[in-house]
Design brief:
The protein is an alpha/beta fold and about 325 residues long. The chain is about 30% helix and about 20% strand. The termini are far apart.
């Protein structure tokens, strides 16, 4: 059994996980019974586990396929980590990466979609970012990313494990996709839970480090302070080291961390003995002008999500929703 967020204390939290799992499953069913259907096709991208499985880059991958096929997709999402959902880090990151795609943010996704239609925003389909548990919005295709390093059969629900709902919830998925390396036994166990094999496999590929203007830079031998307010910050650290960089400091940050002025001053002080600040695209989107000026160069890692297996089948399944 994989340890949960509480680490070695996870075993003591199993009674709470049983309660949480039961309540979450009941809430999901209740919301599904009164789900709202909008008048455009909805493709949901989500996961079972808390934390990063690459949902946002996967959403942009599907949006790109839809655009290439002649459609006008919009992205809808909750907008976590900000008082104003439209200022949330992942919303800003989507808008920066795909400026021509409407990004609709708010706790009631159906309301936001219908509001955008009334306002004359043009789109013929919606890709829902992190929508698997948001069952109050009906969807035409449910795609679930499963973290290869945290397969559902090896963990339990929060707080003892990583799952947002019992692993049996994977049966609701129309399609599931492996995100990152997963062993054969874990794939077979996950396929049994889902009632079907994985349709595809995706991998996050490190594409180097770039300036905010997009110029690639070398981290070889460079002392870097790392700012990573994401679910799996160790991935940034490990990739940076593998590329030859030196992690001079990496203060711990929570996912969607607002990074207070005091914390920002701490990063600024740490940079006095470093060659650069390496900041994730999500954090850079959230901080915006607060990173200007900065005492050392600011560099942003670029990660590309690629479909390592099953691309044709996955693309055809996504596009079939609009046929």
């Amino acid at each position: 059994m994989t340890q949960g967020p509480a680490g070695p204390w996870s075993a003591l939290l199993h009674p709470f996980s049983w309660v949480y799992g039961s309540l979450s499953a009941r809430q999901i069913r209740r919301k599904q019974q009164r789900s709202v259907r909008v008048d455009v096709p909805v493709i949901s991208v989500g996961n079972l586990a808390a934390g990063g499985t690459g949902k946002s880059p996967f959403v942009r991958l599907l949006v790109g396929w839809l655009i290439d096929a002649g459609h006008r997709p919009a992205i809808a999402m909750r907008g976590y980590g900000a008082a104003n959902p439209h200022e949330a880090d992942e919303v800003l990151e989507h808008r920066s990466a795909m400026p021509d795609v409407p990004v609709l943010a708010g706790p009631d996704r159906a309301f936001e979609i219908q509001k955008a239609q009334r306002e004359g925003i043009r789109f013929d389909c919606v890709v829902l970012d992190d929508g698997f548990q948001h069952t109050e919005l009906a969807r035409d295709l449910d795609v679930v990313l499963v973290d290869g390093m945290r397969p559902p059969a090896r963990t339990t629900t929060l707080p003892a494990g990583w799952l947002r709902e019992p692993a049996s919830g994977l049966r609701r998925a129309d399609v599931w996709v492996v995100s990152g390396p997963m062993g054969q036994e874990d794939q077979m166990a996950t396929a049994q839970l889902a009632g079907q094999p994985a349709l595809a496999e995706v991998s996050a590929i490190w594409q180097g480090v770039h300036t905010p203007q997009g110029d690639e830079v070398s981290v070889q031998g460079k002392r870097c302070v790392v700012m990573a307010g994401i679910a799996r910050p160790e991935r940034v650290r490990d990739a940076l080291v593998q590329a030859g960089g030196i992690v001079a400091a990496m203060p711990p940050l929570a996912d969607h961390d607002p990074i207070s002025p005091v914390m920002l001053d701490q990063f600024r002080a740490l940079c006095s003995e470093a060659d650069a600040l390496v900041v994730t695209a999500k954090d850079a989107a959230r901080l915006g002008d607060r990173l200007q000026p900065w005492p050392v160069p600011v560099w942003i890692p670029r990660v590309e999500l690629t479909v390592s297996d099953g691309e044709v089948a996955l693309r055809e399944r996504v596009l079939s929703v609009l046929q």
